[in-house]
Amino acid sequence: MKEGRQLHRWVFDLAASPAKLWPYVSDTNRIFRILGAPPVKELSFSRNTPKGFLELSHSILGSQVTWQEEPFAWETPFRFKVTRNYKIGFLRHLNIFTECLETDHGTRLIVKITVDPTNALLYYPIKLYVNYVLRKKLGDYLAVIDNAVSQDLHPYELNEPKPLIRGAEKKIEQLSKELIEKTKRKRIVRHLIELIRKAEDEDLERIHPYSLAEYWGEKKYSVLNVFLHATSLDLLDFSWDICCPRCKSPKNSFRKLQDTRVHLYCDDCDDDYTMDFNKNTHLIFRPHPLIRSIPDKKYCLGGPGVKPHRVIQQSLAIGDERYPELLLEEGTYLFRTLNHEGNLVFHVREEGTDNVNVYVTDEELHGQSITISRSPNLGIFNHSSQPMVCFIDKLNWKEEAIYATEVCSNVDFNSLFPKETLKETSKVKASEVTMLFTDLMNSTELYVQEGDETAIGRVMGHFRVIQQIIAEERGGIVKTIGDSVMAVFWEPVSALKAVQRIQQIFSNSSAVGNSFKIKAGVHFGDCTAVNLNGHVDYFGTTVNIASRLVGAASEKEIMLSEALYEHPDIKLYIEKNSKAFFVKESSKELKGFTDEEFKVKQIRLEPPPMRLVI
Length: 614
Known about the structure:
The chain is an alpha+beta fold.
């Protein structure tokens, strides 16, 4: 019998590109399930577990297997690796390395598996199992994935229907008819029913309607409308994830908003965190339990598929250096480590610098920022006194998520689920919220010129137009105050896009806005979400400033605070659309803020009128 480590190397030539294959190749939870691995449980058998390491176990043939798993290392969409060091079981060590190499014909996927059995008698059985059983299962999975993504399909579309709860098929037929009748969106309903019937359990555990909307080619607010109605009919169910702001994992989940807690704990990070209405509180969906049961089983807890917002993760010993390969989209990213509370900020632009070195010491990271290119030469050096795990995360790490700020001001949500709101005693922070106020300047003239009945109809029509635009741009109307609208957005650019469209419609469309004169004020900052009269409302200085900005604006003008204008995403959007905006910088005194001047940007979508001075 031969004793010692085994090295297995597999090569798969696939037609799809690495970028298209990566979400499936890096989904180690799904792959381990397909390969036949048992579900894992997280343990705590050591008091000195290094940060980022996991202690896990599962059962094979009635025997307990326990191991310590080193942090996964990865570079999206190129490669990842992991090492398991076993405490109890058939192996001493297991190392898996997967690499996606782009070729002229697609991707060459290379998998290297190093296995170290504990007993010489296990050498050949393990070798045969890995080389024949596991290789075939992985090859079959990759063939299905490659076939699907090469056709721009989601893999579930090629699946056979999955088992449903007894009697669920008849319910689906009836509920789908009701859903089409209520929403008038037959195509989206059919997509949803196919998803429920065919998708894998992993795809249904946390359904994000917005990512599906993009794939289905539908408007996001339309898909959300269907999902909300489907929940009201018990075809779907929803709950609230409150993610840890550090590791981004949904460590706490609540079925009802009233059940949520403000103060929470993440066992992975061993740290407390707080609920934030605009940063880490998301609405997620899954099939109703009387339609399809989704088992709560995990097969891998630490792979790159668990953290799709994380573009790289690397482990460095003291004195180590790494040169990871990067391929980034434009946007803002945070460089962090498990040993530091702070971060570095990377603004990614086409024209950014190509060479960046990061020297990590024991000093705190203080948010220093740099603009880098999409594919920079990055060097990471560990000059600190301890080993470290470092990573780069997207700042907007849940772009497909439905944030509480957005959905709690959604008209459909509030009408279908009027009791789904915060507890009356709750005061929840809403960080970096964008507040938009609009005002109809000439409503009095409308009532005088057109009479009450006609004017009321036109003003209500103006509200409906604004409501639809705000919903399409992922915002929500908190309330109307006279002829004014107060709206909330989870990100600044969405607010600017919304008010830009509002001004365009009411300025240029004779059918809609011939006699309407709209002005707007937009501000960005922190505020507090509360339950006021059964609905979520917002209070704080950010709200007050936004409401005063609209008062200081002129006809057809958008008044932006300096805090909003200086946001990197706003600056990038205005730069890319410079011909559409006429920007003037000024200072304003705002009502209620005595002894203080505010720097603002007065924005128009057309040149300001010429003034003739005689």
